[in-house]
Request: fold
Amino acid sequence: MQETHGIALWPQNRLLMHSDGLKWRDLYASFASERAWTASLPAIDHHCVAYCVNQANEITRRFDGDGRKQSAILRPRQLGTIPAGVASHWEVNGSADVLLVYLRQAMIGRVAEEVLEMDPDRVEIRPVLGEADALLEQLALSVLASMKDQSPHGSLYVETIAQTIAVQLLHEHASKGKRAALANPALTKPGMRRVMDLIDTAMDEDLSLGALAAEAGMSPFYFARSFRQHFGEAPHQYLLRRRIDRSKEMLLQTETSLVEIALATGFSSQSHFTSTFKRFVGVTPGEYRRAV
Reply:
């Protein structure tokens, strides 16, 4: 929260959810019911995407530097952006429920260079206000759902979301500082084996998309895309399925307690393990152990 504008914590606003404690690496999110406010927002090092969920806000804002001024009504299913590195001055009237998603500038730069072959030093995110973007909307809703789930082991999934948000922002809502085309690396068989070994040996750890991609010798974005092409599912889905498979083995072959199995397979608690196991298998871990 310290690296954001802190809008959701202002006294006139009511914080509904935030991602603190969820171990998300490149993305921070807050969801709040806002009331009228007037403020100057300092320049920060991260880009922000605002998504209106309910009601509406009438917004007038001005950015330092070129003095550009924007006025619009941010309605449900519409978005706005607050680019990194520029201060702005705001007058907001309304009572909208707004999701704020902050993306690390370093991650945006990596995606710009590695995925879109753009010069990260020349890329500028446009200050969007009151626009619709179907893909960003779905990604914002995925962030919101992940906050509601409150699972710290959803971090791998959220990293994938963050990468995709970055690609969409750069592709549709940014200046285009192109540089020489880069070769798109492929996921090799040795790379796949290293990734599989890491997942199997470090299943109890909070594995990141970056760590898995590094084992494959690829950028996180291209790794996630190549992984899905090879396995028919995203890395976070594969990891979760492997955790369930390992837990089944431990339930059948050992007398290990459910708490110990949960921690050994990367779940944050027995309750998280039980609910996820039942969602995948149809019965609780205890019922599975007794039935087989």
Observations:
- Residues 244-291 form a domain with the Arc Repressor Mutant, subunit A fold (CATH 1.10.10.60).
- The longest helix spans residues 235-253.
